[in-house]
Give the backbone structure.
Amino acid sequence: MTTQRQDYRPWPLTKIEQRPHEPWVSSSGKFDGLTTNKAAFQSFTVPPRLAPEPRKYLRSVAKFEGVSTHAADYKAWQIAPFIVHQTNQRHIYEEDRDFKSTTAATYVGHQPPREPIKVQTYERPPPLKLESVTTNREAFQKWPMPPKLISPKNHLAASSGPFYGLTTYNDTFTPKSIERKVKVRSHYAMKPTKFDATSTHRADYTGEPCASPKVLDFRPRARYIPTEDDRDFLTTTKAQHDEKPLPLCKVAELMKGKEAELRKDGHMYLKVANA
């Protein structure tokens, strides 16, 4: 017996016995009593809805000789007829004035000098043979690479002799039989006696009043209307957090002797000449 089999032995298992279920006994005969729901139920009479009788319309037999409010307020307007006038044709006249406009008088046409387009020429190498070695071939030479060492693989040779013992898996494996258990569902058996007391659910239950339903609110909302900033003071944030000049710009030393200016942010900028 191996050490593993001696140290790890199977534990003794206890068999779980199931409690026998009570058989269902059906009640024989007709049920003449009252259930809990039927005993607690009370019917209330609802009065019919009060619907007033519609009034009868009495039409007058006399003829109406006046003018109704609708006809007096909504009268037809006197609209003038839409007359389409014939448009005058446009006549183009020749220019016969003896002066020039402001644009033509101040405009000066400049003729920039145009350089002739140079045709790009390609220099072809001479048809002579190069007898020397180029720089590329001289600097990039093929290195001598040693041959790759390939070690032979070890091949597994199976033993030709018979195996007389037991493997580790066959030695430690123990087959066990499992008993299949079928679960039987229990059936509810109703008692034939009448329940005259109050149930726990009804005694502990307290009806809470329902919350009032949500009503839509159509009140006008005060919305924010942005306006232009016309105040004559600065806010605390803008007064404290503003651009502050630096003690010294790194480019200031390089800009010595040149036309440059120092701005509020502490940097040197070249002066741009006005065109």
